[in-house]
Amino acid sequence: MTECLLKHQRNAVMSRVDRVSEVVQALEDKIFQGGLAPGDPLPSERDISAQMGVSRTVVREAIGRLASLGLVRSVHGSGTRVEAPTGRQISVGFERLLRWSECRLEDLAAVRLPLETAIAASAANHRSEAHLALLDETQRTLGDPDQSLKAHVKADLEFHAILAEATGNPIFQMVLSPIQELLIESRRQTLGKHGSELAHDHHARILAAVRQGDPDLASEEMRRHIQTNFQHLHEAAGRPAADRSGPEAETPPADFSPPV
Amino acid sequence: MTECLLKHQRNAVMSRVDRVSEVVQALEDKIFQGGLAPGDPLPSERDISAQMGVSRTVVREAIGRLASLGLVRSVHGSGTRVEAPTGRQISVGFERLLRWSECRLEDLAAVRLPLETAIAASAANHRSEAHLALLDETQRTLGDPDQSLKAHVKADLEFHAILAEATGNPIFQMVLSPIQELLIESRRQTLGKHGSELAHDHHARILAAVRQGDPDLASEEMRRHIQTNFQHLHEAAGRPAADRSGPEAETPPADFSPPV
DNA sequence: TCCCGCAAGTGGTCAGACCACTCTGCCAGC
DNA sequence: GCTGGCAGAGTGGTCTGACCACTTGCGGGA
Fold first, then answer.
1. Phi/psi of residue A75, each to 5°?
2. Which string of DSSP letters, residue by residue, matches A80-103?
3. CA–CA separation, B48 vs B38, rounded Å?
């Protein structure tokens, strides 16, 4: 209990939090409340360590953590700057978490369905001309049989991402993007097996509904799109399209039933 | 271009990634693919630094980053152990991001609605007796006017969390939990203003539908629950309950397009 | 038998050193 | 006058070795 107060006399009432956490907190405050905008430089590590009375080691660890959270970005020899906020770091964390828990494809689909249908509906209400143009662009790629599978997958992903963006609600993107990330492999399968025509057709129907501002139709088309894909995946996995013998016969992942 | 290859001769073809990142990657692999379960200890910093041929400084920074991502937890004098995966770190990152981008409460609600309705429907299909008992338990707390506001908020949160768990789909929990975290404050408001009776009543209706295994009804009751809460929040914010004059009159956050 | 205290091992912090890189500004060459 | 290259200052990246604070477990004394 005598503590290290004698040597490290900085804080009269030494809290139990370690110094790194202190510095992290201080830097975070500086960024958020200190009015630092993305792109603004942080003081050099040596300056910070002098100002805060801690060793450079501690400062480096603190900055490293902020960097791993995507708040800040260090460039060798150049300095450390505030990073523009994006959802990528969260996506990465999300992905890690999902991978860890070894979730099943069905589980992912079960979450994706209500999300994407809601996105389609909202996009139908809020889409701008710019977004429609971007969606058209992805359709051109997806509809071109000369394009590579990789390009098709990319166009497929982008279609859904742009749709999420078209809602004007950033949370949709944040939540959806990690799920998409995990579905890339399955996309490759469906697009490879059934060709891109099917996806192109589905997307066209969704896009039409979004363009004419019909949220219910957009939502419905999206539901069919996802459920069809899901069936194909099941077939590809060797299983019968769906477990028809179950108590709840109809639509594959019957749950998220929502016609809403 | 002569580089530091002479002194740091470890990697013949030195990649541009820094050593810390290498160690982070290595440790991550060790955790995910090496079959380390939550609670298992990592080697000591000194051991890792010896094994990987880097200084302890680097190892410490790497572990610090993993810790800031919630993958690992260091205890002074005891060691570093793998942390059980939770959504908390993601919630924190989420919250930071939202604070930065100043996102609106409506946006959160817009994501929450389709998720929770899907959860309610799925829970109605997959609930077990054990889950029903747990849900009953939260209802007892929420229905007891002698309990503190804090207890009510907790019971409210738990109701939704258990429901997500009852779906048997872990992804639902993961996606929902950070959103819930961000809604604690708003919950405190609604529960404080309108008392817990309303929430108790709503939950009772949802629970009944889940108990009788009716996904459509459960979904519908959940929709009403969330939309009502949302209206109350709007009122609390001083705005009129909803903009009834909109083109799409009926249900409040219709697409979640909110009446906006 | 039980409890206390000590020793070993671990994470936390420090100091100072060197390397690799970026940036800027000066100066020589055109 | 303008341009190109070079040098120096400043910054992040890594290393070393030391010490402190903490946890844990074991052994010896009451």
1. -120, 125
2. EEEPPP-SHHHHHHHHHHHHHTT-
3. 19
Looking at chain A, how many residues does it have?
260
Distance B175 CA to D13 C1' (A): 37
Does position B50 have pLDDT exceeding 50, yes or no?
Answer: yes
- Which element (helix H / strand E) includes B233? helix B215-236
Amino acid at A68: S
Q: Is B97's Cβ below 8 Å from some Cβ in A?
A: yes
Are B71 and A110 a contacting pair at CB < 8 A? no
Q: What share of chain B is helix, strand, coil (3-state, %, to 5)?
A: 65, 5, 30
What residues contact residue A212 under an 8 Å CB cut-off, 6+ apart? A124
Rounded average pLDDT over A204-225: 96
Cβ of A46 under 8 Å from any chain B Cβ?
Answer: no
Distance CA B69, CA A78 (A): 26
**Interface membership of B105 toward A (CB under 8 Å):** no
Residue A259 has pLDDT above 70, yes or no: no
Q: Retrieve residue B152's tokens.
A: 């009510």
Position A4 pLDDT exceeds 50: no
A255 vs B223, more confident:
B223
Q: Which chain A residue shows the shortest CA-CA distance from B28? A: A96
For chain A, the first-to-last Cα distance in angstroms comes to 61
Please tell me the distance from the alpha carbon of residue A125 to that of residue B106, in angstroms, as a whole number.
Answer: 15
A44-75 pLDDT per residue, tens: 999 999 999 999 999 999 999 999 988 999 99
Number of A/B CB contacts below 8 angstroms equals 160
- Average the pLDDT over B198-218 and give the result: 95
Look at A12-16, B27-31, B147-151, B188-192 and tell me which has the smallest mean pLDDT.
A12-16
Which residues does residue A79 pair with via DSSP β-bridges, in sequence order?
A: A75
- The protein residue nearest D12 (Cα–C1') is A76
